[in-house]
Amino acid sequence: MIKPAVILLSGGLDSATTLAMARADGFDCYALSVEYGQRHSSELDAAARMARTLGALEHRTMRVDLAGIGGSALTDSNIAVPEAPTSGIPATYVPARNTLMLALALGWAEVLGSQDIFIGVNAIDFAGYPDCRAEFIAAFENMAALATRAGVEGQPCRVHAPLISWTKAQIIRAGVRLGVDFGATVSCYQADELGRACGRCDSCRIRKSGFEAAGVPDPTHYRAV
Amino acid sequence: MIKPAVILLSGGLDSATTLAMARADGFDCYALSVEYGQRHSSELDAAARMARTLGALEHRTMRVDLAGIGGSALTDSNIAVPEAPTSGIPATYVPARNTLMLALALGWAEVLGSQDIFIGVNAIDFAGYPDCRAEFIAAFENMAALATRAGVEGQPCRVHAPLISWTKAQIIRAGVRLGVDFGATVSCYQADELGRACGRCDSCRIRKSGFEAAGVPDPTHYRAV
């Protein structure tokens, strides 16, 4: 039986593992990347590599100009990416980002006849991001059931967030078991054009300590700083 | 007191009236149009005219490539726009369209510090569109309160859909009272590049009978067919 699923794929460690898990669950995977004006576009190259090596049937990149509205260190070069831990919602939070990416996934899922969307959000490492929490995912799913033709016809979309309560170490171990080449993923908020990481931003710090905690050698390409 | 609001503005009759109502309510209006690959791009020219003549402080057009996923007569030239009434959800339904447009509005609202989004959806004329119903709007609002920094900080966004239960005649009468120049709006699903209407699609039929019911002369520019 064919089970199509749309997988949001950023090119980072979490979404690559999520894609590998969806494949392992027997889904036919349609990978969706969103170019939203992020500074680190080498993430998108990494997404294309992951889609290919992890067996996605198709990979699409949709462009949305969130840089035009600003409001985040990831899309506005006037706002610095923090290099020390911060409390509360960090400057790297992108307004309504996951809502928008899930909306795009929902549209594609409906066209594909798919009832399954996967997103690699994680509530523990990204506790400061409101749209990485389980209650947000549940509310989106509830809204989606009312938003679409498929939902109205009794086939609502499920939003899978399998990593939501995992530690980074758990995610890394699962990815290693499923053959994810983490050296080819890009998580850094300010990666250079070759995908080399800064080693200092929140995302790099969380990733680095995840490899330590998992007891897995860190394959990340760091640039000289 | 300044009350910024984001108004989704398509260039059609409903969203123009919605903008005029938000202005009359004292909101500082930031108009947002979304170019999603619709066939009828003359709508966007109409949106720019409406933003200007109805006193929006700013008008932005964000581009999202929904044509890339297809699935609708409005974005896929292989699917015909119906010219006779249909039952159920029509071919002009665009998968997840309102979810996506509201997500973009939500992001901009957060950056602007606005807690108010206006959308001109109407449940009566567009009964076939799942994302034009009050329960969808309520579910989106509920999701948005969990999705954003503002929501988490106790300032959730309200989604106003003032036309949702109005007839087309009621909308037209309200717009006339507020000085909307309906002759400069474009509602037709297959308007030509000058914005001239076909007079035959669902949207034209609903609009035409709305003017009749309202007892207002129809100012629509129809093309010779």
Q: Could you walk me through the main structural features you see in this protein, from its secondary elements to its overall organization?
A:
Two copies of one chain form a homodimer. With 225 residues, chain A is of the alpha/beta class. The first copy, chain A, has one domain (4-214): Rossmann fold (3-Layer(aba) Sandwich), CATH 3.40.50. The first copy, chain A, is 36% helix and 11% strand. The first copy, chain A, has seven helices and five strands, in the order E-H-E-H-E-H-E-H-H-E-H-H. Chain A has helices at residues 13-24, 42-53, 97-112, 134-147, 149-152, 168-177, 202-214; strands at 4-8, 28-35, 58-63, 116-118, 158-160. A five-stranded parallel β-sheet of chain A has the order 3-2-1-4-5, sandwiched between helices. In chain A, helix 2 links the parallel strand 2 and strand 3 (58-63). In chain A, helix 1 packs across helix 6 (168-177).
Record keyword descriptors for this entry.
7 helices, 5-stranded parallel beta sheet, 225 residues, globular, alpha/beta, 5 strands, Rossmann fold, homodimer
> What's the number of domains of chain A?
1
Helix content range of the residues of chain A, please? 25-40%
What's the SSE pattern of chain A? EHEHEHEHHEHH
CATH superfamily of chain A: HUPs
Whole-number radius of gyration of chain A?
Answer: 17 Å
Low-confidence stretches of chain A: none
* Count of helix runs of chain A: 7
SS class of chain A: alpha/beta
Report strand % of chain A: 5-15%
Q: Report strand order across the widest sheet of chain A.
A: 3-2-1-4-5
Described by strand count, sense and barrel closure, the largest sheet of chain A is: 5 strands, parallel
Please name the CATH architecture of chain A.
Answer: 3-Layer(aba) Sandwich
- Largest interface, chains and sizes: A-B, 42 and 42 residues
What CATH calls the topology of chain A is Rossmann fold
Mean pLDDT of chain A: 89
What is the CATH C-level name of chain A?
Alpha Beta
Distance between the termini of chain A: 51 Å
Strand elements of chain A, count: 5
